[in-house]
């Protein structure tokens, strides 16, 4: 068992958490090497409410503008996300707007790493003609659209429907697919945690203050100040473990065993909410029988957490119900890290149900529903349904529960095999799969095999570097987007300044491609018309909403007595999983791989200073954390002759990277950890280029059962001191 002989004071010295705490503290301090804008007189400043896009949370911000320049960003106090406060990334948004390395106009590839500027007219014309040609030769299904789903995603999907391709795929398989599949089947949707009112909270691999969500952090900080007990279960002493009351250093990939044992204790000792279970769930007796053998003593042998601790945590959690929850998670053990992640997510869903916390204060909840208008009549005739199956098989016979999320990591294999039909073209928007997916080398080779690769982004990322056409989107401070909702509020993204360069909003780019590809009848509308149609039943227009940026509207609260499941209740025993080849109730499945004596399990995660691979060239955030390091346990490092600061070579079966080592007791001896989002291979991005290492180069293409998730932490590596 990993010893926990470490104090907060000892850990904070020289730790990555020091950077996290600095980032979490609010306003950025001026940083050496980063220009600090001087504050103009308040009377000369225009304030524009809009939406941040420095991460996926999309907090409401106020852009302070003078002489056509954004000099400051602050949180919008009317926004339910930011509540008037921004994290480090939100504060640093001006450095993305004024990044000297950002894309400034359309580019066409003319050689390896070589691009020439072209006009938008030429770009649209050539892309449209190529799409028409490929559609004629291979059918519309030859086109795949890969995206990090943003506010613009309804128009991306509309384009694909108009083109006739079913192949729109998000980044979910490298993030949240397993969690979503589990909760969608058992709860009818994915609930959130009422962090503000929680009394007892457990995070299995959920690094709440690392993969930082501003509104959640503000709420859980307030809850802790009022006595909430927070437990972090993770092989690594991560940012949240530093903040929590307890850290349980579990063996990597064994969280499922601990959760099953907790369910066992709560059922066996009659600690569950009996009335809630009887009235609002189905399958309790099947669950009870299914977990009968999963005792704390059994789990202790697997997890490295002693049986008494597992039982104590279960009892304390149950005693705090219903203001108690196990976080459904995000990217971690319930999302896309392990082969057993969907079973782990199912177990988390079942455990929460036993607490009777759905709809309860301090438990889990669904958002209210806002009744928008239908913009459909603006968007042309209804496109005919696509006739081909999806490129990745999602939603088909093998992956019946995964149609909404896709299986992005198999893209290289699918391009290579050409079955059941050829994939010859891809549009990639707001995504960098060369670094954010798995097996970077294989993804690059796949891109090289295609006849058309179009990248839409604000920067020349590692994927765009291999595109035939790079189309620059305006940054979030220069454009409008479709509407966003949070609770009972509608929020608008609008430009704070005019585009600095020859860039366009995504709706203009998508519409331009559509018209050049013969799909003009589907895009004969403006984004303002689209938003106005959505807002019409609410008595609002985009122009009116622009004044405040946020409007409170009527919303229908969720009906927890009638969930979107076959039974209308939480399905503790779920036939949908049986039909998908799994078990009726959550059951133990070991991780796919186990490290041998000379191997480590490679694990990765996020840090509060950066978002995926999008912020590594931001001057402020780069100054906070310019590179990543490989966390390695002292006992293992000593045997390999490795000290902090040494450059080490990390090798898996698909790749190898070199990176500095960080020797620390804050990582389980069986694992090494590398923060995600570093190792940029594009020399045009001067700050990010060759800073740190790209973990995606190490991760093989693995697809977990049922959910189709990427199982990124089922990766074994060796580590040696580099010569």
TrEMBL record:
Its cofactor is Mo-bis(molybdopterin guanine dinucleotide); [4Fe-4S] cluster. Belongs to the prokaryotic molybdopterin-containing oxidoreductase family. Keywords: 4Fe-4S, Iron, Iron-sulfur, Metal-binding, Molybdenum, Oxidoreductase, Signal. Signal peptide: none annotated. The keyword Iron-sulfur applies. Residues 45-101 form the 4Fe-4S Mo/W bis-MGD-type domain. InterPro entries: Asp_de-COase-like_dom_sf (IPR009010), MoPterin_dinucl-bd_dom (IPR006657), Mopterin_OxRdtase (IPR006656), Mopterin_OxRdtase_4Fe-4S_dom (IPR006963), Mopterin_OxRdtase_prok_CS (IPR006655), MopterinOxRdtase_cofactor_BS (IPR027467), Prok_Mopterin_Oxidored (IPR050612), TAT_signal (IPR006311). NCBIfam families: TAT_signal_seq. GO terms for molecular function: 4 iron, 4 sulfur cluster binding; metal ion binding; molybdopterin cofactor binding; oxidoreductase activity. Gene3D superfamilies: 2.40.40.20, 3.40.50.740, ADC-like domains, Dimethylsulfoxide Reductase, domain 2, Formate dehydrogenase/DMSO reductase. It comes from Neomoorella humiferrea. This is Polysulfide reductase chain A.
